[in-house]
What we know:
Elements: H1 5-21, E1 32-34, E2 43-46, H2 51-54, H3 58-72, E3 76-82, E4 85-90, H4 92-103, E5 117-121, H5 133-151, E6 155-162, H6 167-179, H7 185-188, H8 192-222, H9 231-244, H10 247-260, H11 264-288, E7 294-297, H12 298-301, H13 306-315, E8 318-320, E9 326-329, E10 337-341, H14 349-364, E11 368-374, H15 378-390, E12 399-404, E13 407-408, H16 424-439, H17 450-470, E14 478-479, H18 482-485, H19 493-510, H20 526-547, H21 552-571, H22 580-603
Parallel strand pairs: 5-6, 5-11, 6-7, 11-12, 13-14
Antiparallel strand pairs: 1-2, 2-4, 3-4, 8-9, 9-10
Helix pairs in contact: 1-3, 4-20, 4-22, 5-20, 6-8, 6-10, 8-11, 9-10, 13-14, 16-17, 19-21, 19-22, 20-21, 20-22, 21-22
Amino acid sequence: MMQQLPDLLTAGVRSGLQTLYQLDAEAVDVTLQSTRKEFAGEFTVVTFPLTRLARKKPEEIGQELGEYLKGQLDEVADFNVIKGFLNLVIADRYWIDFLLQQAQEERFGQAPRTEERVVVEFSSPNTNKPLHLGHVRNILLGWSTSQLLDAAGYDVKRVQIINDRGIAICKSMLAWQRFGEGKTPTQAGMKPDHFVGKFYVRFEEEFQREYTAWQEEQFTKSGGKEGMGSEAHWKEYRNTYFNEFSGLGRAAKAMLRAWEEGDPDVVALWKKMNGWVYEGFDETYRRLGVTFDKLYYESDTYLLGKDMAEAGLEKGVFYKKEDGSVFVDLTDAKLDQKAILRSDGTSLYITQDLGTARLRYDDFGARRMVYTVGDEQNYHFQVLFEILKRLGEPYAEGLYHLSYGMVDLPTGKMKSREGTVVDADDLMDEVIQEAYNSSLERDATSELSEDERREIIRKIGMAALKFQIIKVGPQKRMTFDPKESVDLQGQTGPYVQNAYVRTRAVWRKAVSPELAAAADYRELEPTERELISQLYAYPGLVQDAAANYDPSVVAMYCYELAKALHKFWHDVSILSAETDAAVAFRLSLCRAVGNVLKSGMGLLGIEMPERM
């Protein structure tokens, strides 16, 4: 096994500091980083922190240390000094041996397995509507993060909590009951979750008509606009009207009460319509390529957490107000006071989440849990995590909110109840159609059957969708443009796929390559050196991305590796190279790059086609 360069170089620097300046090298922090692209070299030693100890200028230290390392380490072929930065050029022989001995291993980039378990929650939709573009970002971010953690060696459990109860669910149920004419999704010829979502929108339409009629009635009673308030006032008054005056509102709330009391007819309707939605969700998850180890349902968990509230009172973490409600005071953590139970003893969302966290720990014994939830819930999770710490839960220090920004379309924001969302299924269909339209401009798959071509186009379309969303850092709000996502020349999934396809195409042309001669290759071309140094970074990059819960880092790595491969393809000959050693080496390099592209994109849930 080759010694890793950072360890080897750090040890060499420490030895140099001791030899050149008689320093206690073990007490000195050595700062090693990647060399900036505009300078020659792969690793950089920062010499500024050493000036006080060595009593020399940073440039002098760099020069002396560089000469020492070049003389002592075979792995260092050359160096250059830019102010306080010592840039080290790694020997070709090291890179060649690394490529042939390590980079082509089957599990290259994946860490050894550990017994540490991590629970990752993502998706967690409501059952009153189909999955939409916002859910897609959540799902892709949660899934790719779980894949990263798996590659980093963790035992990962993927879960979701389905919000299957509440007033929004009852709105869909009531609308179907009143306007559905007893039809099923099959009879209506619709995907079942879309069918249910249609009635959520229908409820909103009927409610808006009712509300508008009531406004007009109030206007007439008042004798004119005076005193009736502005449009903004009416918009703000909607909820009050729903709760106090609306016939539809009364009916929806009555249905919710009946469900909570176990009314058999309401429960049967609830099960039937939720069953339709689950059938639709499963199809969407299958198309997105995601699975779960366990599903939690809010109808099972909404009463959880009450025992934790009692325990919190006994420990003095919570306190009870005069009206009987239970609160926690988090002002010392700059989080205000938070209700845990209402005065009538009923649970709140925070109570449910306390209980669900404990339930997951009981189920999996995981001391790390990742919650993939939009950034509008940042405060909620700060409160949740702080309460769990104060309760002394054994997993409390391992909780992480994977917060992400919303997704817009070029046309603007989406609104579920107004029916202006982009459903996940429609979005997938659109990007696959864009990929199909784009493929008509090329003739690379003309010899394949129509089914084979359709499967390749599906992979290209899904890569376009997934890459375009994942490449954006989670905290950033983003706009998704389907046309831009399939551009073969842009920063896109299909661009990376095209690089992989090139590596496969050259292997098909090579037929039965003899690779043993690659060991005789001696001098690297600049593009070969660039590719190999990027391959070398892959295992550490996966570890860092997993530690930071940020798959966008892997997406951009794959893009940069693909870009370097395209440049290599343009600059050097492969099958017609000047020597057998060069042919064998470049084929080996193509295979290693292809493997890493497939591995990295696989972490993002992206499949790689053999042709495109």
